[in-house]
Automatic annotation (TrEMBL):
PANTHER family: 3-HYDROXYACYL-COA DEHYDROGENASE-RELATED, 3-HYDROXYACYL-COA DEHYROGENASE
SUPFAM superfamilies recorded: 6-phosphogluconate dehydrogenase C-terminal domain-like, ClpP/crotonase, NAD(P)-binding Rossmann-fold domains
Domain spans labelled 3-hydroxyacyl-CoA dehydrogenase C-terminal: 478-571, 609-697
Gene Ontology terms, MF aspect: (3S)-3-hydroxyacyl-CoA dehydrogenase (NAD+) activity; enoyl-CoA hydratase activity; isomerase activity; NAD+ binding
Pathway: Lipid metabolism; fatty acid beta-oxidation
Keyword Calcium among record annotations: no
Domain (3-hydroxyacyl-CoA dehydrogenase NAD binding) ranges: 297-474
CDD domains: crotonase-like
Record-given protein name: 3-hydroxyacyl-CoA dehydrogenase
Keyword DNA-binding: no
UniProt keyword list: Fatty acid metabolism, Isomerase, Lipid degradation, Lipid metabolism, Lyase, Multifunctional enzyme, NAD, Oxidoreductase, Peroxisome
Length: 709
């Protein structure tokens, strides 16, 4: 921004001073905006001809709050809380006029004004908790004074936006549309005078028994549902201060709690993740000038679990889908599973009965491939075997119209080899949905060496239409997510052989914040899946006889996981609760003996964490070196959305930055040495990890450097 850039314009008309925010794209309250707001306020207060002040926006959004990109720098005056307090203390009525959403500091700005007017079809929120912090510009003190304790807690602790229609105590007037908003402003504000000044801070609150019970309920909820997160409990504390302290002291308490949150690895992680998610759509393969292909109709080949789930995404977005299966019975089964899923969502109140029928009506079942000839995008979701998929692609190539995008949902196979059987490899791409495909937000968009830029761009945009988070990756075995999972699972299995129990390994990983440990995850996915992959990749992994050997033995005994009632753990009928089984330890002991591996009692939690997780990070670094992922933050997005990596750790690559590159390398090398021959085979640090450690550079710094290269 240049010195002279006007980000908050000032205009006086008929005694009304209007400050108009215009800091595209979202009116972030940057230093320059805060400075100009403050200057405008002084000018309006000192101008005797001004009787009232309006704060509004030239953009569709009122304001998305504090400028998050400034959080990593030292704070600079004027600070937002001071600017907002000055607004509240103004001797002339100040009215916030919202043509669109207000979030975080943006809503706090509106709350500091004496009146609020909005279009009725609008949403506002205090989503700071998602950034590992709390509203730190008076939101925790002013919102409860305007709404109830329940509303304030709900909005601040969950961070979820609320329609203004549900916040009648907060908004003084709601307009039907933008024109009506303008009319209200001109009719209403002219009637205000100095006697209408109405600072929210003067509303007094007290803690009665009922309110106390609400706080207790939220405290229990946070402990249960937001385990591991630091900020939610601080949010509750801050709101509590509104009920137990006078306003000025409440603000002070809010500040202390805000600073306590800000200065944590969690806040850094969650703020990193905010930008990581957005950066994932900034890819160098295309630019603004790249044309996109219209995707108005879709076909999905295969109505199994994956195909059905994929089809649901499009039906949900109102995009017609042709669902193809060879056999009518398989097609009927697929459709009935989809209907059951929708009906279950209806019972949970997520969608209406009308929605169920509307979405089912978007699906056209077919048993003949000719039904896909006019589809703009065709997604193959058949059995995970190269020859099978190649055969389907040959058929797709024969029947699909020119210009159609041909996608495969493979999770491991070489898409270059799939594309090679078609006459149009530049139209072929991977769309790797994660199971359950109708629920999981991640979509790995896999480009081959031939995929054209417009196909990539079209798929990245299409993903957003179906509410997925797309990350562009390249072709290799398992792409990014599953490839990184391989060392993680390998080390877990090896540690089991070396004497650590599955439940201990799982516990270390869940204590770290993953939703489940590697063995519980393996049982849920089905141990036979990994077994099948290992069988088909024996060439690549046969040089280590200890590789997943216990898992192999279990599968050979029919212990394929949850679906069989037994895998690494035992499961009671109808239950998903894993029960440790000493028989598995016997197998591990026998196999260790057979392979000459000494079982140890001295395996520490730290060793488990390093060998499972640091090796996963190391693989991520290898992936970056090979150019399979574009940037470290993309890997973080994949892990948070695809594998439940705790967002408060920012993703594996950001977590590595918190540990520091030197520690990452030192720990890897320590266990590489400690594990002897096995360590040399599997635990060698990648060149990138070595380079970053030598230069004491984080993955974040590396990413910045790469983007400027
Ligand atoms: C806060 O207010 C603290 C205070 O309580 C106390 C302070 C003392 N700052 O998401 P989009 C960028 S904390 C900086 O793609 P959409 C974003 O990175 C703040 N930049 O658009 C992107 O850049 P790029 C509390 C921001 O339409 C571009 O704007 N507020 C900010 O899908 C477009 O964003 C929040 O947590 C920001 N605050 O969604 C709200 N917001 O194009 C955070 C956005 O280079 N923001 N950018 O990738 C959002 O949730 C969504 O951006 C929003 C728009 C819903 C507003």
């Amino acid at each position: 921004m240049t010195e002279s850039q006007v980000l908050v314009s000032y205009r006086v008309e008929n005694g009304i001073a209007t400050f108009t925010l215009n800091n595209a794209p979202v009116n972030a309250l940057s230093l320059a905006v805060r400075t100009q707001l403050q200057e405008n306020l002084e000018q309006a207060v000192n101008d005797a001809s001004v009787t009232a002040i309006v704060i509004t926006s030239a953009l569709p959004m009122f304001s998305a709050g504090a400028d998050i990109s400034e959080f990593s720098d030292a704070p600079q005056s004027p600070m937002l809380p001071d600017v907002l307090n000055a607004i509240e203390q103004a001797p002339k009525p100040v009215v916030a006029v919202l043509p669109g959403p207000a979030f975080g500091g943006g809503l706090e700005l509106a709350l500091a004004c004496h009146y609020r007017i909005s279009v009725a079809d609008n949403k506002v929120g205090l989503p700071e908790v998602n950034l590992g912090i709390l509203p730190g510009a008076g939101g925790t003190q002013r919102l409860p004074r305007l709404a109830s304790a329940v509303t304030a807690l709900e909005m601040i602790v969950t961070g979820k936006p609320r329609p203004v229609l549900e916040l009648k105590g907060v908004f003084d007037k709601l307009a039907d549309n933008q024109q009506h908003l303008a009319d209200i402003v001109s009719d209403y504000i002219g009637t205000l005078s100095a006697s209408d000044v109405r600072p929210t801070c003067e509303n007094s609150l007290s803690m009665d028994q009922q309110t106390q019970a609400v706080f207790e309920q939220y405290q229990t909820g946070v402990e249960k549902k937001m385990k591991g997160f630091f900020a939610p409990a601080q949010c509750i504390e801050a709101v509590k201060a509104a009920f137990t302290l006078p306003f000025a002291q409440g603000l002070k308490r809010e500040q202390e709690l805000f600073m306590a949150c800000m200065d944590t690895p969690q806040a850094r992680a969650q703020q990193h993740f905010f930008f990581a998610e957005r950066a994932a759509s900034h890819v160098s393969d295309f630019d603004k000038t790249t044309e996109t292909r219209a995707i108005k109709s879709v076909a999905v080949i295969g109505a199994g679990t994956m195909g059905g789930g994929i089809a649901m995404n499009f039906a949900n977005a109102g995009i017609p889908v042709t669902l193809v299966e060879r056999e009518q019975s398989a097609l009927d089964k697929g459709l009935s599973v989809i209907r059951k899923n929708y009906e279950s969502s209806m019972r949970k109140g997520r969608i209406s009965e009308g929605d169920v029928e509307q979405r089912m009506a978007m699906l056209s079942p077919a048993t003949d491939m000719s039904a896909i000839n006019d589809a703009d995008l065709v997604i193959e979701a058949v059995f995970e075997k190269l020859e099978v998929k190649q055969a389907v692609f040959e058929q797709m190539d024969a029947v699909c119209k020119r210009g159609a995008i041909l996608a495969t949902n493979t999770s491991t196979l070489d898409i270059n080899q799939i594309a090679a059987v078609t006459s149009r490899p530049s139209d072929v791409i991977g769309l790797h949905f994660f199971s359950p495909a109708n629920v999981m937000k991640l979509l790995e968009v896999v480009k081959t060496s031939d995929t054209s830029a417009d196909v990539i761009k079209s798929c990245m945009q299409m993903a957003k239409r179906i509410k997925k988070v797309p990350v562009l990756v390249g072709v290799c075995f398992g792409f990014v997510g599953n490839r990184m999972l391989e060392p993680y699972a390998r080390e877990a299995n090896r540690l089991l052989l070396e004497g650590a129990t599955p439940e201990r390994i799982d516990r270390v990983i869940t204590d770290f914040g993953m939703p489940m440990g590697p063995f519980t995850m393996g049982d849920m996915a089905g141990l036979d899946i990994g077994y099948f992959v290992r069988q088909s990749r024996q060439q690549a992994i046969a040089h280590d006889p200890s590789y997943a050997v216990v898992s192999d033995r279990l599968v050979e005994q029919g212990r394929v996981g949850l679906k069989a009632g037994k895998g690494v753990y035992l499961y009671e009928e109808g239950s998903r609760v894993p029960i440790p089984d000493p028989a598995v330890l016997d197998i591990a002991r026998e196999e260790a003996q057979r392979l000459g591996i000494a079982q140890r009692e001295d395996i520490s939690d730290e060793e488990i964490l390093v060998r499972c997780l640091y090796t996963l990070i190391n693989e991520g670094a290898q992936i970056l070196e090979e150019g399979i992922a574009d940037k470290p933050s993309d890997i973080d997005v994949i892990y948070v959305y695809g594998y439940g990596f705790p967002v408060y750790r920012g993703g594996p690559m950001h977590y590595a930055d918190e540990i520091g590159p030197a520690t990452l390398l030192e720990r890897l090398e320590h266990y590489q040495k400690a594990c002897g021959e096995y360590g040399s085979m599997w635990l060698t640090a990648s060149d990138l990890v070595k380079k970053l450690a030598a230069e004491n550079k984080t993955f974040g710094a590396y990413q910045k450097e790469q983007s400027h290269a």
